[in-house]
Batch of 4 targets.
Target 1
Amino acid sequence: MADERVLLRQLQQWLTLRRQLLGPRAYVEMPQSSVPQETPQPGMPSSSPTPAHALGADHLLPRRDLPRVRMPEIRAEADLFSTLPAWQQSRSLEELYEHIHTCTACPLGLTRTNFVFGTGNPRAEIVVVGEAPGAEEDARGEPFVGAAGQLLTRMLQAIGLQREEVYICNILKCRPPNNRRPTPQEVATCRPYLWKQLELIQPAFILALGATAAAALLEREERISQLRGRPIPLQGMIMVVTYHPAALLRNPQWKRPAWEDLQLLRRLYDAYRQQAQQ
Ligand code: SF4
C-alpha cells in the first residue's frame, strides 16, 4: 500500500512535469491575417459555411468520429491503479452533479449560497466556459443569468445559436465572495470537475469567456489580446477566446473584437459541420 502511494505520487509528479513540458507545444499559432474578416452585422449569422481549408484550419478541426476530451492525468492513474473516486466514474452529467454538488474541497464551498453546475445541451458541440458564478448565479444556482448572462444570450443569438443548443458552465462552481478573482488554488481544485463535464459532453468547441477562463483551461497565464482572434487546439477540441460579457458591459469598445471572435467561432463550427457531413 505504501509502495503504491509512493508510485502514485511519482506518477503525479511526472504527469505534472510532462504537462508543463508539453502543454505549451499543444498551442498552435495561427496568424490573425489568415482568418478572413467580415464586416460586423449584429444579429446576422454567417449564411454560407466557409470551407475549413479556406479558414486555414482544416488540420485543426476536431474529428467527429474520434473521442475528444479525456482527463489525461486522472485517466492514466485509473489505468494503472483503478482507484478513481466515484465522481470521476460518473457516466452522465446528472450522476456527476449528484457526486459533487455538496463539494467543500475549497473554501468557496463554505460561503456559496448555491452550487452552480452548468446548464444546456448535454450533447452540445459548443461549450461556453466562464470564470465563476456571480451574485445572481449564486442566488439562483444557474450560470449566466444576470445582466452578463443576458448579453451572452444575445451574443449567441447573433451567430445563430440558442442557449439551449450549447452547454454553459464556469471554471468554478461556487461564487468567490464579492466577485473577487478566484485564487490559483481554487481554480486548480475545481478544474477537474470541468474537465469531467467536458469528457461527458465531448464538445468540438470551447468558447472561453475572459482571460481567467482561458488561462484555467490552458494552465498558463496569457493576456486576452494574445489569446483572442484565433483557434486554439485544446485536448482534441478547438477553443476560441473572447471577452467576458461582464467586461463587455463595462467596455463597450470591445464589442467589435468580440463580434469578430464570435464570427470566427461560427465559421469554424460551420466548417466542422460541413466536414462531418462529407
Ligand atoms: S469551487 Fe469547486 S472545488 Fe471549491 S467548493 Fe465549489 S465545487 Fe468544490
Target 2
Amino acid sequence: MDAGLVALLLINRKNSPEELTEEDIEKAIDFASKLYARKEWSSGYIHAMMLPNSGILMANPSMAKKRTPEAIAKNLRGLLEEPEDPNAPICEICGRRHSRPKPVYRSDFPLVGTGGVPNYFPSAKDGLNVCSHCLFLVQFLPLVAYKVGGRVLVMHTYPYELMLELHREALNDVRKNFLASNARDFKRPENFLFHLLGELTRKTERDDLWANASITLYYFVVNNKSPDVTIIHVPTPVLRFIAHASREDPKGWKRIVAMGWRKRPAEEEFEKYERSYANEVYARLLAEESILPYFIDVKNRRANAKWSLLSFYCSEVLGLDKEALEFIRDVGDRIVETLEKLPDNQLSRRVRELEKAEKLYQFEAFFVNLEKLRQRLGIEKPLMTFDEFATVLTSYGEDLNVSWRTVKHLLLFRVYEKLHDRLMKASEEAEEAGEAEEIEDVGIYGLGEVEE
Ligand SMILES: [Zn+2]
C-alpha cells in the first residue's frame, strides 16, 4: 500500500501525500490503466508475478477480450467510490475505514492467500479485511516495483522520502520504456539496494535520510504455481555505514566489496560482478556479522580503506568504544615503530608471524618476541605495560565482536597501512632471490572466523 502511494506521488512529481489532489488521482488512474491494458503488463507481469487472475486490473486471461484502458480505469474509480459498509470490520491496513464486505484474496492484493492456499492472513482467518481505498492504492504497486532475477522487488522504508528516492528510477524507466523496470539488469536484490544507496548518498547531502532509516526488502513472486517471498531487513547501523563509506571513502569501500567475491574481479569487471553475483560482504552486513577481515588484503599486504572508515565501522556497527579503538591504534603504531627499524626481509618475516597467528598463544608469542626485539634494538620504552598487554589479549576476549582476533585484524590493518610498500618490496626481493618467502593466499578464510 505504501508502494502504491509512492507511485501516486512519483507519477505526479509530488513529495508528500498531503499535496495530492483529486486531479492527481485521476491522472494516476489514466497513467496506470493505459499501461495495464497492454499485454506485456497484463499477462507478462501482473498476472505472472504479482496479482494472478486479477479481476480489478483485468489480468485474468479470460478477460483478455474485454480488457481496455477504459474498463480498467472504471474498476479503479469504482474502488474509490465504493460505499462503506458500517457493519464490516475495520480495515486491517489503515485502521481508518470499514473494510469491504467481502474478504480480499491474492488476485487483488499481493502476497495474501486464496481460498485453498492460505499464505498470509491475520489471525489465521480466511481472507484479508481491507478497505476499498487501501485496495485502490495497492493496484499501483506494479508501477514502482523492480523486476530482479525473475521476481519483484519492493523496498519499504522509513522515512517514506527514502522510498520515493529508491523507487524513483522504477517509474522513470516506466515512462521511458512503457515496461516495468528491470533494475539495470541486477540479478540480486541486495546488490541493487547497496548500489542504489551508494549513488544516493553521493547525490544527496541529507543525513536525516539515514540517521534513523529503516529498510525492508520484499522480494517476491506471486503466481499460480509457486508463490514465494523473501524478506530482508537492513539493519540501521549498516545503512549509516554504507552512507558514510560511499561518501567518505568510496574507493576503499569498493575494494572491501570486491573482497566479498571468491574470485576478485578486475577493475572493469566490478560492475558485472555487482549485477550478477552474491557477495559475502553484503551477506554478512545483512546478517549482522562482522566484515572486519575484509578491511585488509592479506595476500597483497594492504589496508583496503582509510583508517577513518575502519574506525567508523568499528564504533557504529561493531559497537567498539572509541577509547578501545584508539588504544589499539596506538599499539599498532608502536609495533610499526619497532618493525620499521628492521631490514626488509626481517620486517616481512615478523609481520608474517602476526598474519599467521591462529591461536591465542601464537598471538601472545608475537608480542613477546617483539618486546625482545625492542630491547635488542635499544628502544627505550617497552612495547606495552603489563596491564596493556593483558587488555589486548583478554579484555575483549569474551565479547563476541571484539575478540583478540578483532584486535589482530586492527593491528594488521595499521601495519599494512604504514608499511605496505616495504612489505611488498620485501616479497619481490625474496622472489627474485628465489627464496621460499611465498606469500600464501591465506585470504579471508585463513584468518579464521571473526566470531570465535
Ligand atoms: Zn484501509
Target 3
Amino acid sequence: MDRKCRWHHGHSQDPRNDTLNAYLRAHIEGAAQHALNTIMAEVLEVTTAGNPSKGAEGTSEETSKNATLLDSISDSVVAKHYNERQEVGLQERTKSRIFFLRNFNNWIKSICIADVLQRLRTRDPRAELTVLDLCCGKGGDLLKWKKGQISRLVCSDIAEMSLQQCEERYKELGNRSHNPHEKVTFRAEFYKADLSKEVLSEMYEDPSIQFHLTSCQFSFHYSFESQAQAETMLRNACERLRPGGYFIGTVPNGCELVRRLRASEGTWFGNDFYSVNFHSKDKFPLFGCQYDFHLDGVVDCPEFLLYFPLLEEMAKRHQMELVYCKTFHEFFQEHSGDPENSQLLSRMKSLEQYPPDRGNTPSSSTDGDYSHAEEHFQRLKEQSDRHIKLGTLSKSEWEATSLYVVFAFRKETSQESATAMTSTT
Ligand SMILES: C[S@@+](CC[C@H](N)C(=O)[O-])C[C@H]1O[C@@H](n2cnc3c(N)ncnc32)[C@H](O)[C@@H]1O
C-alpha cells in the first residue's frame, strides 16, 4: 500500500505551537462566543437551563471539562465501526431499504463535486486538479473523481480496512476499462490517519503538495468531539488549499437536530428509517455534544453536534470564506431542474418510482408515506391520459435526508486577504 502511517506526536512540545495554540484557543473561544451570542441564540433559542448567569452553552471552562470527560471516546469506536462494516455488493445494496435514500445522498455529493470542479475550471481551464478526499471511507466518491477528470487524489481515513478497500477500488477502476478514453486519469495516494488528531501535511510524500479542492463528505462532524479535534480536522482540510481553492462537504444540520429534539417528547426522535438519541434535552456544548445516530443499520456510532455558524467562524481563521451552506432540500430544488442533473438523478436511481411497478414493494410501509406523491400523481392524471410515473422519496426517507446540509468554502486569494485587512483597519 502506497501510504504512510506516521503518528503525529509532540505537537505541543514545540514552544511555538503552545503560543499558536493559545492564540487559536483565544480566537476560537472569541469566535464561539460571537457565534453563540449572535446566531445560535436566535436559531436554537438556547436556554440557560436553570443558571441565568451562564452563557447558553455554559462557560468555556465547562465546555473544556466536557471535552475532557468525553475525550476520545469516539476515535477508536468510529474506526472500529467503519472497519467492521461489511462491504456489500451492488446486488445487496439494491435490496437495502435505504437504497434510494443512499442514492439520493450520493446524487447530492455528485452535483456538489461537479459544481465545484466546474468553478475551478472556469477560473483556470488548464488546471491539473489535485484533490484531498478527507475521511474518504471505502472510496464512495472515486467514480466522481474519475468523471471529474482530476489529475491527482489524496485519500485519508482513520479506518484502515476501509482505506484498503478504497485503494483496491481505485486499482480496479484503472483495470476495468479497455477503452483508453475511459482509463483513470488520476494517480492516488492513501494515508491512514486520525484526521482530528494527526496533521496530514507532515505525512505527505510530496511535502510541497497543494490542493485545489478538499472534500469531506458525511464526516466532519465526528471531529466536533472536542475543540482541539475540530481545529485539527479543519487545519487538515484547509492548510494545503491553494488560494481560490475550495473546501466542500456534507454534515448533519446541528440546528435542525436540536429543533427536532425540542419538538420531541423525550431525548429521542426519528422514524422507521433513522433515529437520533441525545443524552440531554437542554445542554448543547459547542464541542463534545454527543448523540447517537442510527440509519437503517448503516451508521450506528456516536456523532457530535456541529453548529455550522461556529464552523464558519473557525474557518475564517484559515482565510476560508463561506460560499454556501444549503439544506439538501434547498440544494435539490436549486439543481434538480437542470436537465443534466435530472438525468443523473434517474441514472443514479436516486428517486423511487411512484406508483411502483407491479411486484415491486415500496421502500416504506408506513401509512401515508407516499400521500404527497399520490396527490401529485392524481393531479397529473387529471391533466393527461398518458402513462404517468413519478420519482419520489417516501416522507420518512425525506425526513432523514433533510437533516443534512451541503457546504462550500473558498480560500481567499492573497489579494482578497489584503483587501479584507485594509477594510478592517
Ligand atoms: C459516513 S462515512 C463517509 C465516507 C465517505 N466520505 C463517503 O461519503 O462515502 C464517515 C467516514 O469518516 C471516517 N472518520 C470518522 N472520524 C474520522 C477521523 N477522526 N479521522 C479520519 N477519518 C474519520 C470514518 O472512518 C468513515 O470512513
Target 4
Amino acid sequence: MKINKHKTCRMCNSENLTIALDLGDHPLVNSLIQEAQLNLVDPVYPIKIYRCDDCSLVQIKDVVDAEEIYKNVDYLYFSSDMPGLSQYFGDYAQELKDSLIKKGDFVVEVGCNDGVMLEHFKKDYKILGVDPSTNVVIRALKNGLPVLPLFFSSRLAKQIKKEWGAANLIVANNCIAHLDDLRDLMDGIAGLIDEKGVFVLECNYWGGMVKNTNYSLIYHDHYSYFSLEAWVNFAPTYGLQVFDALVSPAQGGSLRVFLSKDQRPMSPRAKKLLEEEGITQLNTMQMSLNYAENVKNRAKEIKDLIQAIKKSGKSIAGYGAAAKGMTILKCSGIGKNEIDYFVDDSPAKQGWYTPSDHIPIISRKDAEKKLPDYFFILAPNYSDVIIQKEAEYIKNGGKFILAKEVVSVFPQ
Ligand SMILES: [Zn+2]
C-alpha cells in the first residue's frame, strides 16, 4: 500500500506538529479478509497522533493512500444497512429543509455513501451525490440517485458548477476525516457554493473523544480529529465563516458545523460550544497529552477485564465487526486467543475475516449454535440497540462487555 507522508498541518500548513499519542502498528481496519487470503500476512501500519502547535488540529501525518482504501478494496460500509441511520438522516435533512433551503434548490452531498441522506432530498430538490467507493455508488444508482463515483476535489467542483450551476446547500457527513487534502476540499466548496448558500458538515468531535476517552474513531482512514475552534479559524481563508454548530448524537457524538459565504450572526449554541472548548482547554497540548494517558489506561483496563474472564474459563465473541472496535481490540492486545468470532448484522461482512487476526465474522443466527458466555460489544454506538434485542440471550445467562464511557459488564 502506498503511504502518503506529510510534513505540514492538514489545515494551516504549519510544520510545527508535535506527537501526542502513539498507538503502535495496526492493520487497515476496513480491509476485511476473504477465506482465500487467510494464509497471507496482512500489512500493518503505525498510528501516531500529532497536534498542530499553530492551529491545534489533531491529526495523523502519514496516511494510507485513500485510493487504496476506497477504490481497490470493496468498501463494506453501507450506511443504509446500519440500524437507525435512515431515521437519523431523515430528521437531519428535514431540519435543513425547514431552515436553510427552499424547494427546487440544488443540493450536493460529498461522501454520500449509498444515498441514505440524499434520498430525503430526492423529492422537490435538484440533487447530486459524490462518493469514491464504487460499490456504494452502484447501490445509490440502483435506487435512482444521481451519484458520481469520484473523490470530491476543487477540480470536480468546478466541473459540477459548470454543468449544474452553484449549489444552494452542500452537505458532507462522516467523510471529512477521510480527506487528506482539506485545503482543496475547502477550495472546492467555496467555488461550488452559491453566494447565499450553506455548507453543512458532520465530522468526529475531538471534544467528545477527550471527554469520554473514546479512541475507537482513531484508525488509518481517519486523518483528522476536529474541534469547533479549528473550523472557526480555518474557514475564513476560503471566504467562509461558521455561523452555527452543535454536537449531534451520531457516531456517539459528532460535530455538526454550518458555514456560509455571507455574514451571519453566530448562533448562541455555537458560541456556547466554543466557550466550553476554551474553558475545558480542549485545544491545548496538555489536553492531548492527558487524553493519550487516559487512552493507555483504558486499554489496560479492557485487557485486564478480558484476561480475567478468559482465566475463569469463559468464552467471548465480538458483537459488531465495525472498524471502530478494531482499534479498541488492537490497543489492548486482544485477538484470536480471546475472541472466538464476531457477529455482524451487515450481510456484506458475513463470511469474511478480520484483518491481521483473521477472526471469522458470522451472522447472529449462525452464532445461535455456539453462543459465548460474553459478547464484547465492539459497535459501541449500537450497544443500547443490541442489548434491547438480546433479551433472550441475557435471560439465559449471557453477558455483555461494554467499553463506552467506562468499561463494564452487563448485567453485572
Ligand atoms: Zn495547523
